[in-house]
Structures are given as structure tokens and as C-alpha cells.
Amino acid sequence: MNQTLRIVAASALALALTARAGVVAGESPSRAARAKAEEPPAPHARVARYEIGSGPRSYFLYEPDGPRPERAPVVVFLHGWFSVNPAIYGAWIDHLVRNGTTVVFPRYQNDLGTLPRDFLPNALHAVRDAMAVLEGGRDHVRPEPGKFAMIGHSAGGNLAAQLTALSADRNSGLPEVKATLVFFPGEVVPSREPLLSLIPEKTLLVVAVGEEDVLVGDLRGRQIFTQATAVPRSRKRFLLYRSDRHGFPPLIAEHTAPSGANPKLDNGEGILRNLQLSMGDVNALDRAGFWRIADETLEAAYAGRTLDEAAADPDAFTHLGYWSDGRKVTPPVMADSLDAVPRVILSNGIRLIPWEWPMKPAESPRVEAQETAQLK
């Protein structure tokens, strides 16, 4: 079927997909019905870019400009293994920054010579240094107090969880992490430290996996969600993104889905640069899925709300829109318990050192997505 997809997101960033037969606005329940068919102009017209340091402890700063605010929230964006080129995630970075957030992009990895055991200390050094630079305020947008968060993909998702655990130590040099969003996380080499039980109880934690992610599966995502024992169920959600091939472009929940290329941020780096950039199409999984979930979570975290409150209307998190023939795009399964979420086939994924890890069953799951029986 050569259907086109009409996207009606549940927030102000709803943006229709471009397809062969054009873009058609659709209707959806509750908040989504009030959304516009196109993303409104961002409040900031430009992105100021800085590269600080060299080697695996260097980082990029992306700050809102045009106009330049005095202060802004800060999000640490952690890339996947060998995805050191910011352009691979450039569309998402651009969305965050133009909407008023400063993004810190630690390199944490230089080349094949950077050992996985060095990823965490490298990232920690970069974040500490970036916050010191921003706090100095000279020629930079200063951080807005109480608005600091982590977003990570793949190996970067694992690092986001680890850094959040480290932030519990007041001597870590990290601000309080209000929200951590972990997308399709993977661990290159298993590590038992830091203990994820140290992730602070006030953190909003979102862990997402993809049903066709044969690279890392769902094991590390389930570990992170389960081991974050200090975070109450009201403040955490686990999501399983599902593929939908009903029309064009097809939406495939595979490992690279959270990437979204923007050539304007291309720095020429990366041993797989051309391949990764070619796979970075931006579609409904990005705009109405990953980006919107992050936006909703950050907004809730900064306002002191729980995920129970933020997701009281499930469409705010899971609605991806409609195909042009009226069929609803398959939403992710979302729950506050792993028992409610089916496993990903090849659940261990591909890893350097495979291992087994027992799962402790949870109780009384709450499922907050529709069509959970329609897994493909």
C-alpha cells in the first residue's frame, strides 16, 4: 500500500510527514485533535556552535541564538558507539536548541583506540567542563537553575543512566538531573558500576527500546529500568516502539531509528560517517515519537510533575498520527512495569561479551498504550 502518513502529534511540535502524495492533516483524540499540522516557528532562529577541547574528552556546545537568551535549560546529549559526528543527531539537536535548550554533546570516544572503560570518565569530564564554561557566562548562555537533563542513544543511553547515578554524589560535579531519557540503550562491555540503584528518586526516567533492534535488543534497557530501584513507578516509564509498514515512508523501530541527520552540523568525523548519515531520515518516530516524548518529559520534570501526571493522557506520549487512509499509526507500548511489555526477539542483541542476567518480575503493571495485542 502506497499510503501517505498524516501526523497529528499531541503537542505543539506536530509536523506532517512529507510523502509521495503530499501531506494531509488528520484528526486524533484529545490533545492531538487540537494540534496543528505543522510545527510552529521555533523561538530561536539560529544555533550557536562551539567545539571545546580535543580528543575523547572534548565536546560541542550548541546554544540558542537569534535572539540569544540570558539563561537556558541544559541537556546532555550522548551519542551511540562510533556516532561521534553531531550531524547524525543533528535534527534532534537543532529542534532542542531552537526551542530554547542548550545542548552539550560530549565526544567521549576518539577512535578505535578509546577503550569502553574510558567512556564514562571521558563523558563525565566533558560535562563538568561544559557546565563550568556555561556557568562562567562569558560569551555563553548561562544554565537555568533546576533545569538539567540527559538524553542518550545506544551506548550513550547507557552512559546517560550511569551519569545520572553518579550525580547522586554531591562531589560528582554534576547538577541534579531532573530527567533522563534512554533510547535503545546498549552496553559495549558489561560494567557493574556505578550502581544504577543510585539514580535519584526524584529523577524522571524514560527507557525506550525497539521491537526490531537486533543490535542491542532490550536487555540493557530492562536492566536500567529494573535496577533504578530508587525511582518510584510514578516517575518512570518503559516503552517498546513498534514498526509500522502500512504506508510510505515505512516506520521501522530498528537501532538507528532515534538518529536524525542534519548536514549543517557535520564535522567530517566518524569511521561510519556516510553510512550513519544516510540512515538518518527524520520521520514520525522522530518528531511525534522520540522528540515529543523528550519534550513532554522535560517539561514535566522542570515543573516538578511526575510521569503519572504527564502521561495522564496517554496520547501525550504515544500517539504517532494516522495514515492517509485513516488507519492509526501503531503506537509504542508504554507501561510502568516490564511485565506489561513483550520481549524483543534476539533480546541480547550483538555484543562483544554476551552474558545472562536474571529478571525480577514486577507487579501490577499499568499499560498506557492501545493495540498492545497487535505486535508484529
Proportion of strand residues: 15-25%
Q: Could you say which overall geometry the principal axes of the C-alpha atoms support?
A: globular
As laid out across the biggest beta sheet, the strand order is 2-3-5-4-6-7-8-9-11
Count of alpha and pi helical runs: 9
Helix content range of the residues, please?
A: 10-25%
CATH superfamily (homologous) name:
Alpha/Beta hydrolase fold, catalytic domain
For the record, what CATH class applies?
Alpha Beta
Order of helices and strands: EHEEEHEHEHEEHEHHHHEE
- What radius of gyration results from the CA coordinates? 19 Å
Protein structure class:
alpha/beta
Number of domains: 1
SSE blueprint:
Layout: E1 5-6, H1 30-33, E2 46-52, E3 59-65, E4 71-78, H2 90-98, E5 102-106, H3 119-136, E6 142-153, H4 155-166, E7 179-183, E8 204-210, H5 219-227, E9 236-241, H6 273-278, H7 284-302, H8 307-310, H9 315-318, E10 322-323, E11 333-335
Parallel strand pairs: 4-5, 4-6, 6-7, 7-8, 8-9
Antiparallel strand pairs: 1-10, 2-3, 3-5, 9-11
Write a structural description.
With 376 residues, this protein is an alpha/beta fold. It has one domain: Alpha/Beta hydrolase fold, catalytic domain (Rossmann fold), CATH 3.40.50.1820. It is built from 9 helices and 11 strands. It has helices at 30-33, 90-98, 119-136, 155-166, 219-227, 273-278, 284-302, 307-310, 315-318, and strands spanning 5-6, 46-52, 59-65, 71-78, 102-106, 142-153, 179-183, 204-210, 236-241, 322-323, 333-335. The strands form 2 sheets. It has a 9-stranded mixed beta sheet with strand order 2-3-5-4-6-7-8-9-11, sandwiched between helices. A two-stranded antiparallel sheet has the order 1-10. The longest helix is centred in the C-terminal third of the chain and has 19 residues, at 284-302. It is globular, with a radius of gyration of 19 Å. The two termini are 17 Å apart. Residues 1-38, 350-365 and 367-376 have low confidence and may be disordered.
